[in-house]
Amino acid sequence: MSGTTTAAVAPRRRTAGAGANRWVVLVVLCVSLLLVALDATVLHVAVPAVTEDLRPGAIELLWIVDVYPLVCASLLILFGTLGDRIGRRRVLLLGYGLFGVASGAAALAQDAQVLIAARALLGVGGAMIMPATLSILRHVFPDRRERALAIGIWSAVAAVGAAVGPLLGGFLLERFWWGSVFLINIPLMLVSLPVGRLLLPESRGDRDGPWDVVGALMAAFGLFGMVLGVKRLGGAEPPLSPWTLVPLLAGAALLIAFVRRQRRRAHPLVDLRMFARPAFSTSVGCIVLAMLALVGLELIAAQYLQLVLGFSPLETGLRLLPLTIAAMAAGLLGSNMLHRFGPRRMVVFGFCLTAGSVLTLTAMGGQDNAGLLLFGFVLLGFGLETTLFGAYESMLSEAPSAQAGGAAAIGETSYQLGAGIGIALLGSVMNAAYAPRLTSVPGVPVSDSRAAGHSLGEAYEVAGRLGGERGATLRHVARDSFVHGLHVTLLVSAGLLLLGAVMALRLPRAMNCEPPAAGPAGVPAPREVADSRVSA
């Protein structure tokens, strides 16, 4: 996908990047991002209500939450390249419409399977919306200092979406049924459609090669296979079980075949030679690790606040609010921090601060500790947003201008891939640490103990049915097991974050405001490679 944007069909007044119009474009792109970010988090506080109403199994519950980011991540490259050919604004507006229809279907779902399908359709709509934001932003802000400020605003809006999602979801659940958390997308879509059509410039890439649908499907099915295998492992399935081994091997094989296919094709979906630039590949890896920690921890934290501490959905959203306010502050301060400290120190500091906050949160127990939660969530939000800002800005700036669209698709895919795998991986770690302690509870029938091992919500249901001393015992053991699983998950997250800090040492030391030179097909020229080695 090419980042060279043309607007031959648009009038002069709507030419991208013309004078102050670029800031108007940024506002519209931020509204688009808000729509997608809101839906990624609004369901978190509704998980207990969905569980009580639809009674999904453990695997179904995981899919209800993570099918949206997984489908979105799988299709970003496909719809990004489609936008290059038929117009990015056109695909964006189609995404708005699909997002609204899918939101209505999710709100009216009567069983888990319908809700999973509707969430998957939401992922398709999100994949149509997201690639345009960063590729257009990269084009309309050619100056790196201005672009850093624009990315800071863009990332702060993403943080707003993450904050408003749980808070608005909690507010709605206090007054309506859980389906209302999806209906809030429809007014946003109704506003975004006419505003986007009026203000956004139409743009297309300059590539004429065939559209590799087969390659996009290979990547999508490969991703689903890998994540399904991880989820089976987390559900205490034996590692050598066919239900675990086959998806893992098939997914890995498809992803390897996808990479080889892209290298052979004259017109690949993604020019993988961009990964030869150390700063670009490192930034992508940092985005994956940061999102892996953020989304998985937010989901588990929401369940902890509601099921262990007994907060209402609205109270849960309020408790999570400091995390996102801190992230908003980091996004707005990011441009100054990046200019002063450089990409390497900024991203390393963000990872280390986040790891420290995660380790601090391991002191959480069965009783509320408001001061500890506030301190830990503020550090977590500021550290993660600092990391994401530095990584995104470095990735976009390291990519040649002619490959801005491909870089944007890779960045958004990494973002969604990290979010999806984070929910699957950390959720699996949580289940693996939680379930073994409930295999046999004294005085509780074995069948009831095993049912309680599926989730804490189900354990509470079984305990309520048993009643008396046996029910109280099961409830106490389940709560303690959940807290133990939370601690194990936090330790795993801290290890991944420290790994990200080590990875970030490959980023450039200083912020170079000159646009990178490019050889054929976006490959760095020899002089540029030498200069990057000196600066690093």
Automatic annotation (TrEMBL):
Q: Which Gene3D superfamilies match?
A: MFS general substrate transporter like domains, Multidrug resistance protein D
Biased segments, Low complexity type: 515-527
Localization: Cell membrane
Give every Major facilitator superfamily (MFS) profile domain span.
25-512
Disordered: region residues: 515-536
TM segment ranges: 23-46, 58-79, 91-110, 116-137, 149-171, 177-199, 211-228, 240-259, 280-305, 317-334, 346-366, 372-392, 413-434, 482-505
What is this protein identified as?
Answer: MFS transporter
Which species? Streptomyces yaanensis
